[in-house]
Write a structure and sequence with these properties.
Elements: H1 9-23, E1 36-41, H2 52-70, E2 74-76, H3 86-95, H4 99-116, H5 132-147, E3 151-161, E4 166-168, E5 187-196, H6 202-205, H7 215-225, E6 227-239, E7 242-250, E8 261-264, H8 271-274, H9 280-291, H10 295-299, E9 308-315, E10 322-327, E11 339-342, H11 348-357, E12 365-366, E13 387-388, H12 399-413, E14 416-422, E15 427-428, E16 430-431, E17 441-444, E18 448-451, H13 479-482, E19 483-485, E20 492-495, E21 499-500, H14 502-505, H15 509-512, H16 525-531, E22 534-538, H17 547-560, E23 570-574, E24 579-580, H18 597-604, H19 606-615, E25 623-624, H20 627-647, H21 659-680, H22 684-700, H23 710-723, H24 728-737, E26 761-768, E27 771-779, H25 784-792, H26 795-801, E28 806-812, E29 816-821, H27 822-826
Parallel strand pairs: 1-2, 1-22, 8-10, 22-23, 24-25, 26-29
Antiparallel strand pairs: 3-4, 3-5, 5-15, 6-7, 6-14, 8-11, 9-10, 12-13, 16-21, 17-18, 17-20, 19-20, 26-27, 28-29
The chain binds zinc ion (2 copies).
One zinc ion binds near residues 164, 179 and 184.
Length: about 850
């Protein structure tokens, strides 16, 4: 027996957190002979508090990492902070505190909370993106992209939020055209900005070879990249006797004879030249109207079609026909060439446009099984493929040859060619904000744009700045930052004042974890070869298109520069679900259903909160947080504690085997198998359910003689070993109390014997009204209720019972069941 005490997480949790840290048992050494397992969770933004969502995400994640360690892997499970970004800057503006101070204080608080969770973080590898030791290398990476032609500066329209005074990525603009952060209406504004040439990798980013990702996320990335195959056709205009070509992309070159009008983006450079004097006022007013809209609004297909005739015409180079040129806001200069050939008969948007403005509609494609009809009677465009009709020499071309024949003709005539386009555009990374990594570029009046020499990195972000509502980066008003000397001529020059999008910081942090303290390089090749790629990545599905796409782009670009040896950053990706309020709604202050984890950790301890998070439901589906159910998990851990502390027998135990010990042994093997398979497949809730069942079965026998058998003691040992990934503190304490040496978290994962996971069975003789009618093989531990169900649902037995009512069910456990019917009794 061991000394009985009450389960007190307040004592044991800090004790083990301190001991683990002192002994550094969760540090992943670089020189381990074990196979590596790089286990990564999306690092948090230092908002200052770990909320329920963090606990819901990290608890199962950590349990999985612990499980892998026990299976014999050298698990690297780092944590850090994505520490640049707007909230710190807004706090600085509103409350007059320094963004750095605010951020570092929050990080300190969150470190404490992360420690309280008892997760196996490898703190030696922590990275904080706002520290110069980190952003020095973010800047270095920018320079590599610049050197390789993947970073460039251009004047381009940007989404501009007048509330935040900054540019926004498309993803930060809500579908209703407002700012994701502050709700202001976003406008378009032309400014000089830096972009990364992600489009160069569009084709490769569409491939997901050798990685195991959720299908939905892959689809979202594919749609985001938006590859279209088709043709470029060069329409032309005669302007003052000059032939000006206007290339247009179409996925349907087979409809080229159906072009009845032509549409340019209002910003298209040719609009000015094509517009006639009579149309100029209307065109100018429309251009101004468009300028005030976001791309998102312009692309909204639900929106009423608007547009203006320029008065000009272009010629269709295939049919030779002259068609009127319009401008319309649904055509964007940044997509394709900013021009669209209007084929109203076979494109729904063009159809709506033609109907609205009374433009002709001409059918040139005949879908299989249809007759040609008058488009005036149509209610929508015919978008299906079909045989070319009304198409000059192409008339009669069957659907399977139509596109290729037109493309061949375009190429032969030199008026177009096959082409692939993408919806993806280059990544705008300039932010007119303070709290970010400065872009390491210098502007010299003599030498132009000059990259900061690598040996002058980092370009330090000043600690104290003034915030002025100018819409420009605050760094513009810091003379000591702004003014510098040109690295090429030594003359006076100024620094770039924009900072980088924080998505740059998070596009490479997983590389830095492999070699976090290297002050000579961003990483050593050796460290990268040892740890990368990431074996498993866990994080929210909301990052499907930005972070996860950018990180893939970074890896591919850095591979091509010779810095990396692999193609994909994250081999396996898993998205957790969302933890909701008790009312089943998203937790939010306005609904008043927000639950803070700290209160529960304080009351029940981290192990209970961890297990409860895993018990809510399947990890990828999320579920509601219900305070009452936390209590249930707390009682479970108490029962485990009481069972082990009350029943553990030190010293010699009986090795004798009998039916009871064999049943316990089978239960043990069955539970190992269930928990092992559940954890492998992220089914933490069912793993816990299996452990609860095992615990209950052992409690039933704890006062029986079998409790002093070796089998029973092995079962107790296995129970806490299997529970350890989910509840690391209580199990570590019980492991120590039961006289084990070393940490339970470094012990080998229990093994099971497949043969022992099968139930032992017996032959049940089934009688109907006293006569033997059937024999059934039934597991030994089947309850009488279950036996009754099995017997009565057996088709043979049912045929003897017929429609008679069952009067009695007599069961002699392990031997005979007799079904007595009412009719038999009456006879
Ligand atoms: Zn805003
Ligand atoms: Zn110079």
């Amino acid at each position: 027996m061991i000394t009985r005490t009450k389960y007190d997480p307040k004592v044991i949790e800090p004790k083990w957190q301190t001991r683990w840290e002192e002994e550094q048992i969760y540090h992943a050494p670089d020189d381990s002979p074990k196979p590596k397992f790089y286990h990564l969770v999306m690092f948090p933004y230092p908002s200052g508090d770990l909320h329920m969502g963090h606990w819901y995400n990290y608890s199962p994640f950590d349990a999985y990492g612990r499980f892998m360690r026990r299976l014999g892997y050298n698990v690297m499970q780092p944590i850090g902070f994505d520490a640049f970004g707007l909230p710190a800057e807004n706090a600085a503006i509103k409350r007059g505190i320094q963004a750095r101070d605010w951020t570092l204080a929050n990080i300190e608080r969150m470190r404490k909370q992360l420690r309280m969770m008892g997760a196996q973080w490898d703190w030696q590898r922590e990275v904080v993106t706002c520290q110069p030791e980190y952003y020095k290398w973010t800047q270095w990476l920018f320079l590599q992209f610049y050197k390789h032609g993947l970073a460039y500066r251009t004047r381009a329209p940007a989404n501009w939020c007048p509330g935040c005074n900054t540019t926004l990525a498309n993803e930060q603009v809500l579908p209703n055209g407002t700012c994701e952060r502050c709700g202001s209406t976003v406008i378009r504004k032309e400014i000089e900005q830096w972009l990364l040439r992600i489009t160069r990798y569009a084709e490769e980013l569409l491939r997901f070879d050798g990685i195991e990702w959720p299908e939905k996320t892959i689809t979202m990335q594919r749609n985001w990249i938006g590859r279209s195959e088709g043709a470029e056709i060069r329409f032309f205009a005669e302007i003052n006797g000059e032939r000006v070509e206007i290339p247009v992309f179409t996925t349907r070159p087979d409809t080229v004879y159906g072009v009845t009008f032509f549409v340019l983006a209002p910003e298209h450079p040719l609009v000015e030249r094509l517009t006639t004097a009579a149309q100029r006022p209307a065109v100018e007013a429309y251009v101004e109207h468009t300028r005030r809209m976001t791309e998102i609004e312009r692309l909204n297909t639900e929106k009423e079609k608007t547009g203006v005739f320029t008065g000009g015409y272009v010629t269709n180079p295939v049919s030779g026909e002259r068609v009127p040129v319009w401008i319309a806001d649904y055509v964007l200069l940044s997509y394709g060439s900013g021009a669209v050939m209007g084929v109203p008969a076979h494109d729904q948007r063009d159809f709506e446009f033609a109907r609205k403005f009374g433009l002709p509609i001409r059918q040139v494609i005949l879908p299989p099984g249809e007759e040609e009809s008058d488009p005036a009677t149509w209610s929508e465009a015919k978008v299906a493929y079909g045989t070319m009709i009304n198409s000059g020499p192409f008339t009669g071309t069957p659907p399977d040859q139509a596109i290729s024949r037109v493309i061949r003709y375009l190429e032969e005539q030199g008026i177009g060619q096959a082409k692939v386009t993408y919806r993806l555009r280059d990544w705008l990374i300039s932010r007119q904000r303070y709290w970010g990594a400065p872009i390491p570029i210098i502007y010299c009046p003599k030498d132009g744009t000059v990259p900061v020499p690598e040996d002058q990195l980092p370009v330090y972000l000043p600690e104290h700045v003034q915030f002025k509502p100018t819409g420009e980066s605050p760094l513009r008003y810091e003379p000591e930052f702004l003014n510098t000397t040109c690295p090429q001529c030594g003359g006076p020059a100024t620094r770039e004042v924009d900072t980088m999008d924080t998505f740059i910081c998070s596009s490479w942090y997983f590389l830095r974890y492999a070699d976090p303290h290297n002050d000579r390089q961003a990483w050593s090749e050796e460290a990268i070869r040892r740890w990368l790629p990431v074996d498993q990545y866990v994080g929210g599905a909301e990052h499907a298109t930005m972070h996860l796409l950018y990180a893939r782009f970074f890896v591919k670009a850095l591979r091509d520069m010779g810095y990396l040896h692999f193609d994909e950053p994250f081999l396996r990706l898993y998205h957790q679900g969302m933890v909701l309020g008790a009312d089943g709604q998203k937790m939010s202050k306005s609904r008043g259903n927000v639950e803070a984890p700290d209160k529960y950790v304080e009351k029940y301890g981290a192990d209970t909160v961890r297990c409860y998070m895993m018990f809510i439901g399947p990890f990828d589906q999320g579920g509601s947080f219900k305070a009452d159910n936390v209590e249930g998990v707390w009682r479970f851990l108490n029962r485990v504690w009481n069972l082990v502390t009350e029943s553990w027998v030190s010293g010699t135990v009986s090795e004798e085997e009998n039916e009871t010990t064999r049943t316990i042994e089978r239960l043990r093997h069955k539970t190992i198998k269930r928990v092992t398979e559940d954890l492998r497949n992220f089914r933490f809730n069912t793993a816990l359910a299996a452990l609860m069942e095992m615990n209950n079965a052992l409690i039933k026998q704890q006062h029986e003689p079998v409790a002093r058998s070796a089998a029973y003691r092995r079962a107790l040992e296995t129970l806490i070993q299997l529970l350890a990934p989910m509840a690391p503190h209580i199990t570590e304490e019980l492991w120590e109390m039961t006289g084990h040496q070393g940490s339970i978290h470094l012990s080998d994962w229990p093994q099971y014997d497949e043969a022992l996971t099968q139930d032992e069975t017996f032959t049940l003789v089934v009688q109907v009204n006293g006569r033997v009618r059937e024999r059934l093989e039934i597991p030994v531990e089947t309850s009488e209720e279950e036996v009754r169900r099995l017997v009565l649902s057996n088709p043979r037995v049912a045929s003897y019972v017929g429609d008679a009512a069952v009067e009695k069910f007599i069961y002699v456990p392990g031997r005979v069941a007799n079904v007595v019917t009412r009719r038999a009794q009456a006879q």
